[in-house]
Amino acid sequence: MSTLSWVRGVNGTLGWVAPKLVASKMRLAFMTPREHLPRDWELPLLARSERITLRFGLSALRWGQGPAVLLMHGWEGRPTQFASLIDALVGAGYSVVALDGPAHGRSPGHEANVMLFARAMLEAAAELPPLRAVIGHSMGGASAMLAVQLGLRTETLVSIAAPARILGVLRGFARYVRLPPKARSVFIRQVEQDVGMRAAAMDVAHYQLDMPGLIVHAEDDNFVPVKESELIHDAWFDSRLLRLKEGGHQRVLADPRVIEGVLTLLAGRSLQARQSA
């Protein structure tokens, strides 16, 4: 029997009689990331990076010189997963800072969530020059949009393979691990207590996104449904939706059309700034 099958079996039985206990264990599993080492293709970029430490021990990698671009990876992700995009940005004259999210890489912590990621971006931005762009992948994209609601300032914003609704993410995880209804409700309440905000409030339908943006999603993404990108696009007036047939959840980061879209967004914003000066 696989570990997942065993967990589902326990949850499906014990979850009816001890919902708080089961929910607490699943909350811990949901918020505790595993470490995944860089792949071979990421190592050359890693070797060219500068490791920097920001406030509260937050760790990041930096490349290049020029206007600042801030990157945030997804759950159990790494800065160097953006390798192709980082190379293109540096080549186009930008300075790139890619964070290790809380409890990821060399950043401190044992647990992480969308709010901790968002606050990490705010802390990083406080020590960086004005941001030309913020780019987030998966949970990093959801965190970037949340961070803007908390006061993060950036000229442009890019969301790649991100969910539109955190409540949907929580419900999806609860179904995946087969939590019964009572345990599922307790699990969501426990996560909300840790995050400090109701899950239903972390929904782009309630957000104010008033900067130019790019939303990217692949139709064959098996982790975050492509329909989430349409919800983000509907809520974000000044955004372009780049929907790709293929790219999955991770490979999309290296797609030439995504890189072109990001550079076009940044170049257009730069031209607009010069014209209004």
TrEMBL record:
Organism the protein comes from: Pseudomonas chlororaphis
GO MF annotations in UniProt: hydrolase activity
Protein name: Hydrolase
Chain segments annotated as transmembrane: none
Source taxon at top rank: Bacteria
One Pfam family per UniProt: Hydrolase_4
Keyword Magnesium: no
Domain Serine aminopeptidase S33: 68-153
Keyword list, A-Z: Hydrolase
